[in-house]
Design a protein that fits this description.
With 315 residues, the protein is an all-alpha fold. It contains twelve helices and two strands, in the order H-H-H-H-H-H-H-H-E-E-H-H-H-H. The chain has a two-stranded antiparallel ribbon with strand order 1-2.
Length: 315
């Protein structure tokens, strides 16, 4: 264990000696602060033009106009009626919507930066092994009295620790920026539950969203780590992983007519589909998705370790 920790410390120090690492952190912070300032500016301008009561009445009128359409589906009709009921509840009970200008709403917006965090972590996962081979430093590393398994484990754990660090930065910075720009008010977000308008558990929903987003974060990182370890090409690992991340939905949709699509990891990596209720494939469940992801995670790791431990390092 002590040797593994020493290796991880060495990897962590090498990581922060790279300008790219600092650039990733800076870009993440900028991606949070910039939109926050724009949202505050927009909120201030809007507040000068219209009251929240007028805005809610406008929302009601807009949805009522949409209900008059000829091609309104039952799903859309239900959604429009729910939004009308929520807006009418706000007006009747004097409950202004702060969803566009509150600490909780801004932190919810900032949770979308998990996609950017996943990209940065994938970049590290793809290059942390392949870069050692391209620069030739892998030969020096393997001459140490450490097993190859511990060396690869230190790189994998360092990658995930860096990803978790970025998530922590995202949460802390979004909380600070949200508090400075919008104050401590969390806002009042409403939803329909069994035909009744109730207040949403904002912080619980936010924590649940972060938890479900971990599916794509973990699987994308492991897949990039696999490709980078086996093919020793960071560009291939990054390109292929990002392609599957952004085009995965279309690929699953194209293959949805086939039964085997239920057993492909990209069908299940986006666990937020259970949060929204828009399942990529009908009939799948959360336990089934977690089982498929666990199987693929073990498979990715097994191939990565076997490739790294068995392959010769040429001079």
């Amino acid at each position: 264990m002590a040797k593994l920790l020493k290796l991880m410390q060495n990897e962590w120090m090498k990581l922060w000696h790279k300008k790219g690492t600092w650039a990733m952190v800076a870009l993440l912070i900028l991606a949070i602060v910039g939109p926050g300032i724009m949202m505050k500016y927009y909120e201030t301008k809007t507040a000068e033009d219209i009251t929240w009561q007028e805005n809610e009445q406008q929302v009601i009128n807009n949805y009522k106009d949409m209900l008059k359409g000829d091609n309104v589906s039952e799903v859309d009709k239900k959604y429009f009626e729910e939004q009308i009921a929520i807006s009418e509840y706000r007006l009747a009970n004097d409950v202004p919507s702060q969803t566009e200008g509150s600490l909780a709403s801004f932190m919810t917006f900032a949770s979308n930066m998990l996609t950017l965090i996943t990209l940065f972590t994938v970049i590290l996962a793809a290059s942390i092994v392949s870069s050692e081979f391209s620069t030739g430093t892998i030969k020096m590393l393997l001459t140490r009295p450490m097993s190859r398994a511990k060396i690869l484990t230190s790189k994998l754990l360092t990658t995930f620790i860096f990803g978790l660090f970025l998530i922590a930065v995202n949460v802390v910075v979004s909380a600070l920026v949200g508090f400075i720009l919008f104050g401590g008010a969390t806002g009042v977000e409403l939803e329909m539950v069994n035909g009744q308008v109730v207040e949403k558990a904002v912080w619980n929903d936010l924590a649940y969203h972060y938890l479900l987003s971990g599916g794509d974060f973990v699987m994308s990182t492991l897949f990039a780590f696999l490709v980078g370890s086996v093919f020793r090409s960071s560009s291939l690992a990054i390109g292929l992983t990002m392609f599957l991340s952004f085009m995965g939905g279309m690929i699953v949709m194209f293959l949805s007519r086939y039964e085997f699509v239920k057993y492909i990891w990209i069908t299940h990596s986006n666990l937020t589909q259970y949060e929204s209720g828009n399942l990529m494939i009908e009939g799948i469940t959360m336990p089934f998705s977690l089982t498929i992801l666990a199987i693929y995670a073990v498979l990715f790791l097994a191939i990565s370790y076997l490739s790294f431990m068995k392959r010769d390092v040429t001079a």
